[in-house]
Amino acid sequence: MPFTPALDFVFEIRARVTETLHIGHGDGEVTEFTPIVGGSVDGPLLRGKVLAGGGDWSSTRGEVCELDARYLIQAEDGAVIDIVNRGFYRPKPDSPDQYDGDLQVSESGHYYRTSPVFRTDAPAHRWLSETVFVGLARPERDDVVIRMYAVR
Predict the structure, then answer these.
(1) Is the pTM here over 0.85, yes or no?
(2) In this structure, what DSSP letter does residue 95 have?
(3) Cβ atoms of residues 51 and 38 within 8 Å
């Protein structure tokens, strides 16, 4: 039988964002920066907050938006964790609403996925630096909500 990787929900990041800043136009490309000004982290394996000061640099070509976010989260125990979260947002008409139990984790008509990488030397959170993750993202009011799953 072929191997199929499994995903385990580990936590959800709610990144509070403010008004996007236009950087420039390239050859068929629009570059922007969206500041991250705070937020929360909540889940079975990590709880804490998103620290202000990070942001998301995006490049849009046609309908495809390439995301490159970098920010810090602080665990409840005070450990600071760096996250580089790259991904894509694009229309995908055949994509249905997706749920994890009763929670809607993505909206129909959109592909919004990320591939985060974490760095920390805090022993309690070292597992973040040694695990591959997939993020399912969705906009929610002034937040970008990313539900993180560890690949097993």
Answers:
(1) yes
(2) P
(3) yes
